[in-house]
Design goal:
Blueprint lengths: L2 H8 L2 E2 L3 H17 L5 E7 H7 L13 H11 L14 H12 L3 E6 L6 E8 L2 E8 L5 E6 L2 E5 L11 H9 L3 H8 L4 H23 L16 H17 L6 E2 L5 H18 L3 H22 L7 H17 L4 H15 L11 H20 L15 H15 L3 H11 L2
Parallel strand pairs: 2-3
Antiparallel strand pairs: 1-8, 2-4, 4-5, 5-6, 6-7
Helix pairs in contact: 2-3, 2-4, 3-16, 4-5, 6-11, 7-11, 8-9, 8-10, 8-11, 9-10, 9-14, 10-11, 10-12, 10-14, 11-12, 11-15, 12-13, 12-14, 13-14
Length: 421
C-alpha cells in the first residue's frame, strides 16, 4: 500500500461536522448541475448520516443546525470545488435565503434503509428542471450526478474501484499485521512528514481556540496553567471538539472521513510529543501510525457505525502513536491499542453534537493511559471477553460486534431522536 496515497485519501481538512458537510457537498453538485434557481430539494440519507447531521451546528451560520439547512446552503452555493469545506461559501444573504426556504418547507428529508452507512442523495428541482447528486461509500465519493436524464458524472461501483482507491487500500489494511503498520509509519516520505505536521498544527490551532474561549460545553476551557499531562490532553482535545461541534469556522484535519476522528488521532499525540521534546520526524511517524491504526479499525467496523469511532478507532490510533513516542516496542504499542478498545468498547455513537467533546476528551485520556500501561508491561495480554490481543483478531471481533450485535442500534437511536426534538 502506498502510504502517501493513503494519507492524501484518508487525511483531509474538513469544515464543521463531516456528515452535514457531505450533505452540503452533494447539494452543491446538484445545484451546479441544475443551474438554478433551485426551488425545492429532496434529501435522502442513510440512518447514520441522518443521525450525525441532525443536531450538530453548521459553520458560518451563527448556531443553526441540521441536514436540511446544510443541503439548501450547498444547493445555493452550487460550487462543489472546495469539497467538504463547501460551507466556507456561506454569506449572510445566502443564510437568510436558505433559512427562509427551509422554514417554508422547501426541503424534504427522508431516511433510506438498505443503503451504505455513508449515503446521500440530493434532488434539486426548479424552473421545470431537475438535477441529482448521490454520494456513497465515503463522504466525498460522488457516485452519480445527473441533469434530468443526462448522466454528467458516474463512478465505478465501490467493489470495482481500481488499486490505490480508498476501498482497495482498506482491503490491504485488513490483511496487515501490526508490525507492518509500525514499519510503514517509519518509512514516511518527506512530503508525508510535512503534511502530517501541517495537520497537527491545524488541529492544535483549533484546540487553542477552544481552550481560551467558551465554545460548546466548555470541555476545553483552561486557565493555561495545565501541568498534568491528562489535563493538557483533555483540554486540548475537548477544546477542539467544542469548537468543531458548535459550528466553529475553522477547518480540522480529519482522519478516516471524520473531523472528530482527526482530533482524537492527532491532538493527544502532538501534546505528548511536545511534553517529551520529540523531534518533528518522531511526531510525524507517530501521527502516521495513529492514522494507520484508526483506518485499520475502520476497515473492519465500517465508515459510520453504532460504535463511537472517535473513541474506539481514533482512540486506538492515538494510543499506538503515543506509545511509539514514549519508546515502546511494536508489541507494546499493539497492546496499548487492544487495552484502549477494552476500555471503551461499549461507547455508542448517538449522533454528532456538542456532547461529542466529552467522548473525544475521554477517549484521548484513556488512550494515553493505555499507552503508559502497556509500556510498563501491563494491559491486555490474552483474550478478555470480546477483546483479543492480536489486532487482526480484534478487528474481526469489532466487525461482528458492530454489525451483528449493534446492527439495529442506529435505526433504534434514530427513532428515539425523532421522538425528542
Amino acid at each position: 500500500m502506498d502510504l502517501d496515497i493513503f494519507l492524501r485519501t484518508e487525511v483531509k481538512p474538513a469544515l464543521g461536522c463531516t456528515e452535514p458537510g457531505a450533505v452540503a457537498l452533494a447539494a452543491a453538485y446538484a445545484g451546479q448541475a441544475h443551474g438554478g434557481p433551485v426551488e425545492r430539494l429532496r434529501v435522502a440519507l442513510s440512518v447514520n448520516v441522518y443521525k450525525n447531521g441532525r443536531s450538530v451546528m453548521l459553520p458560518n451560520t451563527g448556531g443553526h443546525k441540521g441536514n436540511r439547512l446544510a443541503a439548501m446552503l450547498g444547493a445555493l452555493i452550487a460550487d462543489p470545488s472546495s469539497g467538504l469545506t463547501v460551507l466556507q461559501g456561506v454569506t449572510p444573504e445566502l443564510l437568510d435565503r436558505a433559512c427562509t426556504m427551509v422554514e417554508a418547507g422547501a426541503v424534504e428529508e427522508v431516511v433510506e434503509s438498505g443503503v451504505p452507512s455513508v449515503w446521500i442523495q440530493v434532488e434539486a428541482e426548479g424552473g421545470g428542471r431537475t438535477a441529482l447528486c448521490r454520494i456513497s461509500g465515503r463522504h466525498d465519493r460522488v457516485e452519480l450526478v445527473k441533469f434530468g436524464d443526462e448522466v454528467l458524472m458516474e463512478a465505478a461501483p465501490l467493489q470495482q474501484e481500481k488499486t490505490g482507491s480508498a476501498s482497495s487500500m482498506y482491503e490491504e489494511l485488513r490483511s496487515m499485521s501490526f508490525e507492518e503498520l509500525w514499519s510503514m509509519a517509519g518509512s514516511i516520505s518527506a512530503e508525508a512528514e510535512s503534511f502530517l505536521l501541517e495537520g497537527a498544527d491545524m488541529n492544535m490551532g483549533v484546540a487553542d481556540k477552544g481552550m481560551k474561549t467558551p465554545w460548546g460545553l466548555g470541555v476545553g476551557l483552561s486557565d493555561g496553567r495545565d501541568t498534568d499531562i491528562f489535563a493538557r490532553i483533555r483540554h486540548s482535545t475537548g477544546g477542539a471538539s467544542d469548537v468543531r461541534m458548535s459550528g466553529g469556522e475553522f477547518p480540522i484535519m480529519s482522519s478516516a472521513g471524520s473531523g472528530n476522528h482527526g482530533i482524537t488521532a492527532i491532538i493527544p499525540v502532538a501534546v505528548v510529543a511536545d511534553s517529551l521534546g520529540a523531534s518533528s520526524r518522531q511526531l510525524a511517524e507517530a501521527l502516521a501510525l495513529s492514522h494507520l491504526v484508526c483506518g485499520y479499525i475502520k476497515a473492519y467496523t465500517g465508515r459510520l457505525t453504532p460504535i463511537c469511532g472517535c473513541s474506539v478507532a481514533a482512540g486506538a490510533g492515538a494510543s499506538a502513536g503515543m506509545a511509539r513516542l514514549m519508546g515502546s516496542t511494536p508489541e507494546q504499542a499493539e497492546r496499548a491499542v487492544v487495552t484502549l478498545v477494552a476500555s471503551l468498547l461499549g461507547m455508542i455513537c448517538d449522533g454528532a453534537k456538542e456532547t461529542c467533546s466529552l467522548k473525544v476528551a475521554t477517549a484521548a485520556c484513556e488512550a494515553y493511559s493505555a499507552a503508559a500501561l502497556a509500556i510498563k508491561g501491563g494491559g491486555v495480554h490474552d483474550v478478555q471477553g470480546m477483546v483479543a490481543p492480536d489486532i487482526k483478531e480484534l478487528g474481526g471481533i469489532l466487525a461482528q460486534f458492530s454489525q451483528r450485535i449493534l446492527g439495529s442500534a442506529d435505526s433504534e437511536m434514530a427513532q428515539i431522536m425523532l421522538q425528542h426534538h
